[in-house]
Amino acid sequence: MPVHDWTRVDDGIFHDFHAGWIPEIRTALNGGLLPEGYYALAEQHVGRKIADVLTLHIQPRHIEPSHQFQPTAGTALADAPPRVRFEGSLAARQRSLAIRHVSGHRLVALLEIVSPGNKARELNIEVFADKIAEALDAGVNVVVIDLLPPGSFDRQGIHGYIRQRLFDPAEIYNLPADEPLTLASYVGGETIETFVEPIGVGGVLAEMPLFLSAERYINLPLESTYAAAYHGMPAFWRNVIEGKPLPSE
What we know:
The structure is a single chain. By secondary structure, this protein is of the alpha+beta class. It has one domain. It is built from seven helices and ten strands. Strands 1-4-5-6-7-8-3 form a seven-stranded mixed β-sheet, sandwiched between helices. It has a three-stranded antiparallel β-sheet with strand order 2-10-9, covered by helices on one side. Strand 9 and strand 10 form a beta hairpin. The protein starts with 10 loop residues before the first helix and ends in a 7-residue tail after the last helix. About 6% of the residues have low confidence.
């Protein structure tokens, strides 16, 4: 299913789709895509600082931590690099999908879908970018899905904003004009690895790597889960998004 033009509907309609897409991805991951010992949960955290992410990072009460785990399942980065067009390294510095491991139930990765509210004001996008960067600093891997065109505060998309504002202000990320939407995967830690795939309206979502460690990842089934969430939307709003004639009121 091709990516739709979400500027045709208001923020509330995209929020409904966003709320439906997260569970579809969670179901796919928990249905066998994640290696044994890993699980995905929809977790809500808000706020300007990293405290919310660190709260997720702390093991739940009454759980005894076990030995440090190192994933052996998933695809080895050295054997099969993710199929994205842009890759690089950067010096370290609402509702999410959290990937945890049963050894201490530590947070391994976050998946964030950018909403219109994240781009509505400069403060909002700053808060969002801060959360991503500080999660990476805490060693949490992150996937960011941005299906909204650049706005006044992220003229090169959300990845360009994160890169320029928080990592290297002097370096300009050139978002392709004909592919203004962005899929980005980050490996957290002292050196942050980036895997970026631009996409345009009408394009098909690529399988983005979700890193379980710096060396191993699984591919996220974005296209199939997107399609499942989209088919769950009201037919009226699907017709609006697709530019089809609407019934007379």
